[in-house]
Structures are given as structure tokens and as C-alpha cells.
Write a sequence for this structure.
DNA sequence: GCTAAATGGAACGGTTGCGTAACGAACGTG
DNA sequence: CACGTTCGTTACGCAACCGTTCCATTTAGC
């Protein structure tokens, strides 16, 4: 990977990708939802409500609600941790993987176009 | 500028920047608001409600409401077009420039860290 | 066992965004 | 100088998100 972004190019990339996401007819994720989703998919598991809340510096209900919404969208799913039944483990789904694959492709496409 | 993003690195960049924006105590912009803001600052003026709505493939009230909110945040301002007083021209502000400068710096920082 | 701590979720009231539909102001054209 | 068109905004009902607070369940420590 080689990255040498200059200020305006960095913003142009962000704009192009954001525009692409807005153009999709899929419902937009909020910034927090997107951050949670990416964290679950990119950082090593296990992911818990408490852990995500700490990672994002937000309160637990924020995570719970985001998981409710993204669960309805099938982007993630919850499972009780059988070892410690107080915990809920957040897991990836096929739909979530496909969605983020799409986002990744969009970023790469727009980055290439900006060269 | 040289960009050669691979799939996971592209997503990691998006995650790191999103996380940085969430960590800021400033109120999060929605994806649509951010897209409007970047478009106003990066694409050649003049910018009108109708033009932005067409550019983003959203309805006019979406733009009006986003401008209301970002106007309250001082990120953009509106001005009547004196040539054709039906039009409203959307203009940049100092605060908006500073905010996007901050976002640009964040993107560049995270991109550098990912090399 | 019994109490204290930890976890995720529910409830509440308030704010903001959404899509649809309607509106007033300004323009252009006959 | 009417009349339709264009522009941005407002109104409405609805859904989602927010922060705070409280709660049920589960675990851990004494």
C-alpha cells in the first residue's frame, strides 16, 4: 500500500465515496453505525456492547440501538456468550460482509479515479 | 498523489477516519450532510438547492433541512441570488473551511498511519 | 448463600431526519 | 398583464436517534 494524500485529494476521495454511498438506494447508515460495523468486521473479536461503547466513547444504549437497527438490516447479529451469559457477542453476517465489500470496492474505485 | 489501496486497507482507512470523527465531541453530521458540505466546498460554485438535490439524487427538502442544520452550525450560509431571486446560493464559511481542513488532516493522518 | 458489581436492555422525553404534498415568491412567455 | 413554470420552503405524520435513568439477569467475592 502506498498512500500520499494531499489535503484536497483526501477530501475529494471522502466526497466521492460519500456521494457513492448516498446514491445507493440502500438506507444510509449513520456515522456511528458505520463505525461500529467497520470495527466489528476489522478488529479482532470478540466484540461486546460494553467494549464497543468504550472503543467509540459512546454510551451503551447507543450501541444497543445501533445493533437493533443493523440487526434488522441483517448487517450484524447478536449471540449470548455462553461462557459469561451477561455478555452479548456481536457477530458478522454474510450480508454485512457483502455490504462492506461493496464499500471497499467503492473506496478503491474512487481512489483510482483520483490519481 | 499516489494511491494503491487494497480492499482491507481501504476499509481500515474508512474506519479510522470515521472513528476519529465519532471521537470528536462535535455533533456528527449525517452522511448526506457531509456529502453536501464536501460538494459545496470542493465543486465549483454556484451551488443551489436544486443543483445539490440533483447532484445527490435526493429531494429538495432534504437539502433545505441539511442547510438549516449546517447553517445553525455555521458550516455554510445561504444568500439570495440577486440576479434571479428565486435561487438561493449556498456559500462557504470560515467555520466550514476549518472543519473540512480538520477532516482532511484526519484522513491524511490515518492514511499515513496505515502505510 | 448473600450481597455487590457488571452487563445489556428497556423506558422516557426530546430532537432530528425522512418523504410527500402543498405553498408563496419570482420569473418568463404569450 | 394574466398564466404557467420554477425555485426554495413549510407543513404534516412518521420513524430513528439521542442522553439519562432505571431494571433484570448473571457473575463474583466474602
Amino acid at each position: 500500500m502506498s498512500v500520499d494524500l494531499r489535503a484536497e485529494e483526501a477530501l475529494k476521495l471522502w466526497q466521492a465515496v460519500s456521494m457513492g454511498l448516498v446514491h445507493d438506494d440502500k438506507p444510509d447508515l449513520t456515522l456511528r453505525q458505520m463505525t461500529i460495523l467497520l470495527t466489528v468486521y476489522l478488529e479482532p473479536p470478540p466484540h461486546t456492547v460494553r467494549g464497543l461503547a468504550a472503543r467509540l466513547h459512546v454510551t451503551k444504549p447507543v450501541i444497543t440501538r445501533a445493533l437493533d437497527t443493523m440487526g434488522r438490516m441483517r448487517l450484524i447479529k447478536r449471540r449470548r456468550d455462553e461462557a459469561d451469559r451477561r455478555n452479548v457477542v456481536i457477530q458478522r453476517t454474510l450480508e454485512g460482509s457483502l455490504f462492506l465489500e461493496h464499500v471497499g470496492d467503492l473506496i478503491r474505485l474512487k481512489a483510482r479515479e483520483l490519481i
